[in-house]
Design brief:
5-stranded mixed sheet; 3 helices
Length: 107
């Protein structure tokens, strides 16, 4: 499963999950197979600097990256609707490291 964790920093599994979805600076994308982390990469979130439509730009990047689930503290209504329509699961967690968040998800 490919999971994106929204973050303000690029520190891999030690990145802190951001309160923001659409305007977070980075997406820490983690590939998990059989409960084991197989790959980690950071991508700039195109919504992070967008003048408008940040949530939708972030959702499009998730689609482009083949993400199946995303974690952030809060999601705007447009982003939530788009995620639901596309079938990307979203989880609300924030202020903890990506490695801790992984342990809290029921995948």
């Amino acid at each position: 499963m490919r999971i994106a964790f929204m973050s303000e920093e690029n520190r891999g599994l030690d990145s802190i999950v951001s309160q923001r979805f659409g305007r977070a600076k980075y997406m820490i994308i983690v590939d998990v197979e059989n409960g084991e982390v197989k790959n980690i990469k950071a991508e700039l979130n195109p919504g992070g600097q967008a003048a408008s439509g940040a949530g939708i730009k972030a959702v499009q990047k998730l689609v482009d990256e083949g993400v199946e689930a995303v974690v952030a503290g809060a999601f705007g209504p447009n982003a939530m609707t788009a995620l639901e329509n596309i079938g990307i699961k979203f989880y609300q967690l924030q202020g903890i490291r990506v490695r801790e968040a992984l342990g809290k998800l029921s995948l």
